[in-house]
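Repro:
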Amino acid sequence: MTENTPASMHFHVVSGGARLFKSLPDGRRQIIGFAHRGDVLPAYPCARYPYSAEAMRGVQVTCVPTPVIHHLHDTSPGACAASLQSACHLLVGMHSRLLMLGRQTARERLAAFLIGQGTRMGTHELWPVDPALSRADIADFLGLTTETVSRLLSTFHREKLISRERRAIHILDPDRLRAIVATPE
């Protein structure tokens, strides 16, 4: 999906992942999020896609034409309620991100990001952070430099908060990561 093109499809990520970004007037781009298995990239009710999506690795999506979504919303209260719930979830996530960018230290931002990525499937079980997420992608998303993200990942590894296996990051101590976010240093 490409920013500002007609929103003709609704996408459901079946496997793999994608980075979501906005193009800036000077040619740069800002990563605004990541989509993983189970995530939905809605087109409805927008007439045009508000951002672009780019595959990070073998992404597979199910595409649903926008008119089908319109019809479901008109005929199924359950589908409409699910869309509202999804929109609410996105809005809460945006509020959290604004707070993070405005008030959290680099250490707090990375800890919150790791917890968020580790629990992205909506369960209490921790998942490895997607190995397709580069340090540069994480840094761009968090408003940090790549060097800061690398240095903090090394610090978290030394503190035994995470382990690293190839590019995958495994959370070893989620309670201590959550404590970093909850108590500013």
